[in-house]
Design brief:
Elements: E1 3-6, H1 14-25, E2 30-33, E3 38-43, H2 47-57, E4 66-68, H3 72-78, H4 84-93, E5 98-103, H5 110-113, E6 118-122, H6 127-136, E7 140-141, H7 156-163, E8 169-172, E9 183-186, E10 193-196, H8 202-209, E11 213-214, H9 222-225, E12 239-242, H10 247-263, E13 268-272, E14 283-286, H11 291-307, E15 312-315, H12 323-334
Parallel strand pairs: 1-8, 2-8, 4-6, 5-9, 10-11, 12-15, 13-14, 13-15
Antiparallel strand pairs: 2-3, 3-7, 4-7, 5-6, 9-10
Helix pairs in contact: 1-6, 11-12
The structure holds threonylcarbamoyladenylate and magnesium ion.
Length: about 350
């Protein structure tokens, strides 16, 4: 059975952290908050424990996991000697929403990296996460703590909805600060490659390491380079459509689509970023206009539409740089675009 542990995010109770860390040490699974989304943690050096993570999430075994660390000793344990650019990134952005791909050492089991010779590393900026990793005394794999394909969890209750009964412990540490996942950058290529836009803007990364190449979703090497990106992700149960175009056309197209859906007997949801749309009979959710607000609410809203039993979600388009790039990516994937 799954134990729920409520832990204070500002000053985590040591006894509760110890209880969760003991579960990790025994090869168990513990969901915990990070600054981006909740992760499903297990000992990154214990293949048996990691198997439980793949099983609980229903995650394909060819999608490698991020290893979460809290200090540089652990970095040296799992990664080969880092290049100067990697050290510069670490000094500037860790702890924080940046995952760095580097060459791995043998100690990292194949099941973590799906057999790749690289490993994804991240130091999360969250007190519960850092104290858990420290107390466990081992690096932790932590994919987002959702069922594979579902929107990532930003609150304890989302993890409970997806994984209760399937894992040992769920730490409820409140709402995560950012709301979308970390930015993933491959530092084994020259120039470095952005594999997943996320909580840290690629423009900020470029100020430290120079030009970063963007991997287009149609790139033929995509599955090999970024295994996780080939699956449909972040998806609500409802069918989701993003209406593109200039703003006047978008507004009237959304209304037309919504009215058609209603006429066909569907329950229709509208996801708005810029204006509130009120179409009689539809459920409208407003994600906000500041990108920080949108990032914080996006997955929550997708899950809320599911709870409302919506059949069709019609979304305004969303684009831009910085954090907006990550939001636009999640939105497209939720709508089943960018699928291979
Ligand atoms: O914000 C986050 O990164 C969250 C929190 C919990 O830390 N974790 C997360 O993990 O989003 P996950 O497993 O949902 O996404 C990991 C991504 C996947 O797209 C995976 O394919 C990619 O990182 N990845 C992991 N190891 C890789 C590697 N060696 N090479 C290329 N991509 C890798
Ligand atoms: Mg995920």
């Amino acid at each position: 059975m799954t134990k729920i542990l409520k832990i204070n995010s500002i000053s985590p109770e040591p006894s509760k952290i110890k209880e969760a860390a003991d579960v990790i040490k025994r090869g168990g699974t513990v969901a915990f908050p990070t600054e981006t989304v909740y992760g499903l943690g297990a000992d990154a050096l214990n293949p048996e424990a990691i198997r439980k993570v793949f099983k609980a999430k229903g995650r394909p075994s060819d999608n490698p996991l991020i290893v979460h660390i809290f200090d540089m000793d652990t970095f040296q344990l799992v990664a080969r000697r880092p290049a100067k650019a990697v050290i510069d990134l670490i000094n500037r952005f860790w702890p924080g929403p940046l995952t760095i791909i580097v060459k791995k050492k043998k100690v990292v089991p194949d099941i973590v990296t799906s057999g790749l010779d690289t490993v994804a590393l991240r130091m999360p900026d969250n007190k519960i996460a850092l104290s858990l990793i420290k107390k466990a005394g081992v690096p932790l794999v932590a994919p987002s703590a959702n069922l594979s394909g579902r929107p990532s969890p930003t609150r304890g209750r989302d993890v409970i909805a997806d994984l209760s009964g399937k894992i040992d412990v769920i730490i409820d540490g409140g709402k995560t600060r950012i709301g979308i996942e970390s930015t993933v950058i491959d530092m084994t290529t020259s120039p470095p490659t952005l594999l997943r836009p996320g909580g840290l803007s690629v423009e900020d990364i470029e100020k430290v390491v120079g030009h970063v190449q963007r991997l287009s979703t149609s790139h033929e090497n995509m599955p090999a380079r970024s295994p996780g990106m080939k699956y449909r992700h972040y998806a609500p149960k409802a069918r989701m459509v993003i209406v593109e175009g200039d703003s006047d056309a978008v507004q009237s197209d959304i209304i037309k689509l919504a009215e058609k859906g209603l006429k066909d007997g569907q329950k229709v949801g509208i996801l708005a970023f810029h204006k509130e749309f009120r179409v009689e009979g539809c459920i409208t959710k407003y994600a906000g206009s500041r990108c920080e607000t949108v990032a914080g609410r996006l997955f929550d809203i997708l899950r809320a539409f599911d709870k409302d039993g919506v059949d069709l979600i019609i979304s305004e388009p969303y684009d831009g740089e910085g954090l907006k790039l990550g939001i636009a990516d999640r939105l497209r994937r939720a709508a089943g675009q960018g699928k291979q």
